[in-house]
Each structure stands twice: as structure tokens, then as C-alpha cells.
Design a protein that fits this description.
By secondary structure, the protein is mainly alpha-helical. It is built from nine helices and no strands. It has helices at residues 5-19, 25-35, 38-66, 72-93, 107-120, 127-145, 154-191, 195-198, 203-221. The longest helix is centred in the C-terminal third of the chain and has 38 residues, at 154-191.
């Protein structure tokens, strides 16, 4: 069960990102309402998910490179400091989204918009504590894939890190895309945007608190 909880948390984070209007479902619904068809909502989903995944991948790759040059005793508290610092910044800054895209945005424009929004929200940062818990099992899997008699060399460790990173990005993107699709289609077909006038959750503050909580968790359980 201990090996399973990072994956469950990863799916939960993907679902949380998908439920956040800033992650793309609100944009997809707006496109669908503008064109008056469900197909416009569906066509917006792949580039939104791809942009989000690329943002997360960029952070994971940066972390993967960093861990080979920074000692674990420095890397872990450094990660905690980044999470807490960015969470505090988001909490003080508030929802000031300056990224703009035309409502006739194509695949590339939607992908770029989603990438920038995910990066601005620090979507990939919250994945890193979970990646720490996945690295060891992934390294053992990489070792087994290298065949009998293989040893945990630097190249095998790098393979394990790459394997863990790829799985993390794919699982997170799948969970995020599933929730974005469900919410966007539900709002477009049934609920309507009027729900935004009747009730609203401040996802920016909730996400900032999640980042800070994640940083504190890294310090407490390391």
C-alpha cells in the first residue's frame, strides 16, 4: 500500500487540476458555446491536456537533472522551500491571470496557452514530492528490465528516473484530461455557465495552500 499511495495522490492531483477552471475546461466550454456544438468542446481538450503535460514534464526533467548534481540532504529541503515559497507567492499575489488567447485559437495556440497557465500555477511543482516516492520503485523496475546481473550504475539510475518521470506525467495527464472532459461536457450540456454566478470555489487560494502543505509534508516525512 505504501508504494500505491503516491500514484493515488498523483491521480488526485490530476483530478484537482482538471476541476480547476483555469486549467482549461472553462475555455473549452466557451469555445463550445461560441460555435454552438459539442465537437468544439471535445477538440479543445487534447491541446489543453498536452500543454499541461508539457509544463509538468519540463519541471520533472529539471528535477531529474538536478538530482544528479545536488545531494539528497540539500535537494529535499530545497524542494520544500520552493514549494512553500511559491505557495506563499501565489497566496499573496492572488488570481492575476495575464495570459490571453483569442477565441479562434488553434491547436498550437491552445497548447501554448495551457502550458503557460500550468506553468504560472506551478502545476509541475506539486508533482515532485510524489516523484520522490516513486523514484526508488522505478529504479528497481529499471534494474530488472536491464536483465540478470545488472547493477545499479549511474546509467541504470538515470533510466529509472526517466521511467518514473514518464509514468508520472502520463498518469497525471490522464487523470487531468478525464476530469476536464467530464466537467466541460457536463457544464456545456447540462449545467451551463450560470453555475459560476451561483457558486464558486477559490481554486487559487486552495492551490496555494496545497503547495505550502506539500512543502511542509516533504519536511516532515523525509
Amino acid at each position: 500500500m505504501n508504494d500505491l499511495w503516491p500514484w493515488l495522490a498523483l491521480v488526485g492531483l490530476g483530478a484537482f487540476h482538471g476541476a480547476n477552471p483555469a486549467s482549461g475546461w472553462l475555455f473549452a466550454v466557451a469555445l463550445g458555446l461560441q460555435e454552438g456544438r459539442r465537437g468544439a468542446v471535445l477538440s479543445a481538450l487534447p491541446p489543453i491536456a498536452l500543454g499541461h503535460a508539457l509544463s509538468v514534464l519540463a519541471v520533472v526533467l529539471g528535477f531529474g537533472v538536478t538530482q544528479f548534481f545536488v545531494a539528497p540532504k540539500v535537494l529535499t529541503p530545497g524542494l520544500a522551500a520552493v514549494l512553500i515559497g511559491f505557495g506563499a507567492y501565489r497566496l499573496m499575489r492572488g488570481p492575476r491571470h495575464r495570459v490571453r488567447a483569442g477565441m479562434r485559437a488553434g491547436f498550437a495556440e491552445l497548447t501554448l496557452w495551457s502550458f503557460l497557465m500550468a506553468t504560472a500555477h506551478g502545476a509541475g511543482l506539486m508533482i515532485l514530492p510524489l516523484l520522490l516516492g516513486i523514484l526508488a520503485p522505478a529504479s528497481m523496475l529499471a534494474l530488472s528490465l536491464c536483465g540478470p546481473g545488472a547493477e545499479m550504475t549511474g546509467s541504470v539510475a538515470a533510466f529509472g528516473t526517466a521511467l518514473a518521470g514518464a509514468m508520472v506525467v502520463l498518469v497525471h495527464m490522464a487523470a487531468m484530461l478525464a476530469v476536464v472532459a467530464v466537467v466541460a461536457l457536463l457544464v456545456f450540456s447540462t449545467v451551463g455557465l450560470g453555475i459560476l454566478r451561483r457558486g464558486w470555489i477559490n481554486f487559487d487560494r486552495l492551490w496555494a495552500g496545497t503547495l505550502i502543505g506539500g512543502g511542509l509534508a516533504v519536511l516532515l516525512i523525509r
